[in-house]
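Please annotate this fold before class:
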Amino acid sequence: MNSSRKSAFTLIELLVSLAISGVLILILNNLINNSIFTDAKIQDQLEYRLKIESLLAHIDADIHSASYKLDGNKSIKIQFSDDRLELHLKRFGTSPRTQQIIGFEAIWTFDSAGVSRSVNSPEGTHTRLLSDTFISAKVENLTHNIIKLTLVDKTFTKSKMFKL
């Protein structure tokens, strides 16, 4: 009797290879999920930093276009309290209703509610919440006409100097 056996994998070898393949698939799945989560977290942080950069650019534009007082200084007043900072700027602008030039006061507020900008004009008061995340703000007078505004969040610190 001639018994010719064909070579093949045994059942144990197949089960071991399936188990190893399953473990590798789980590891790859975890790596992909972690990379997607990390990418989303980094994207959120970048968008938030861009939002803060935009806020600082708007503050800069308000300070730059603030009107001058009789003594030659810009019409800017800074008010501090425990966890609140307010920048009051008087300036001129065009009324959206009448298209006439009017004087108004822009008030930037940094407090536990976030960052907001209020506009007080003869046409009324309008407040816009620009960020609902608590950002502590600090102002330092570097010279008589240069201030440094520092914004501190739980993840970063950003500062910018403004010429008054």
The CA atoms of residues 74 and 141 lie 14 Å apart.
